[in-house]
Amino acid sequence: MSLAPRAVLVHRTTEYEELLARHGTHGQAAFFLSARGRSVEDVRERHERARRALAEVAGAVPLAWRQTRVERADLDRFLFGPEDVVVVVGQDGLVANAAKYLTGQPVVGIDADPGRNPGVLVRHRAAQARRLLPYAAGEGAAADELTMVEAVTDDAQRLLALNEIYVGPSGHQTARYTLGLDGTDAAAEAQASSGVLVGTGTGATGWLRSLWEQRSSTLPLPAPSDPRLAWFVREAWPSPTTGTTRVEGLLDSGAGLRLTVESDRLVAFGDGVESDALELTWGQTVRLGIAAPRLRLVH
């Protein structure tokens, strides 16, 4: 007998909850913000909207289903099942935070604060959850299959991301490495830079796009479902021993970018989450390319 679907409601701690955890009471939080020219009421109103949206979605879960919640900070310890319908209630970035822990489960993005989020990934309102959840669990649910990026080290560490993966120094030092491309006869190039960014079409609306615009690149950025990635080297430095001939490009399916570390320590992290980073040491190689899993984002 197959299990009933389980609705996994992904949410995050609100700014108001973080303020209360830091300052103890509403009054102390209000005093702290007022001393800086801000009102705690604005923060509390956003908190209440987020909690109302979460409660509305929870109430829309079919009675025959199972239901659980997971906070963003606990995603790396949560075990998703094949029968799960993942309902992200929050901001676009929360979908990216959850994506790397999934293996094909349908994802429904619920915008907890309409008007403040771009709504690229959280496309729906809480009031639509009652209809969307049974639809997402059905066989014919329409979903965008969003490309993801992965980093795999030579000792089999692996990192997934929906937007982009950054490889570089954890602080403001210079990253030194040798950069090469799979499937080319050209020699790898020694480089010194502030890091390398490899991203998807979903990420092309964020950090990746800022680099693209900053250098007035003519590189055609991929769309979210395109099976290719774009990559950029940040602030490559020319010197007698380091070059700048490879600073941007596209990676098609099966292609990869290889970095061999020539610094004491570099890190690789995805979607801006530095707390979940791979540690890379001198002589270690990391390959970046298209990940096999895709994010199934329900229309």
UniProtKB/TrEMBL annotation:
Superkingdom, taxonomy of origin: Bacteria
The record's section on InterPro entries has:
ATP-NAD_kinase_PpnK-typ_C, NAD/diacylglycerol_kinase_sf
Its protein name is Inorganic polyphosphate/ATP-NAD kinase
Q: Which organism is it from?
A: Streptomyces bikiniensis
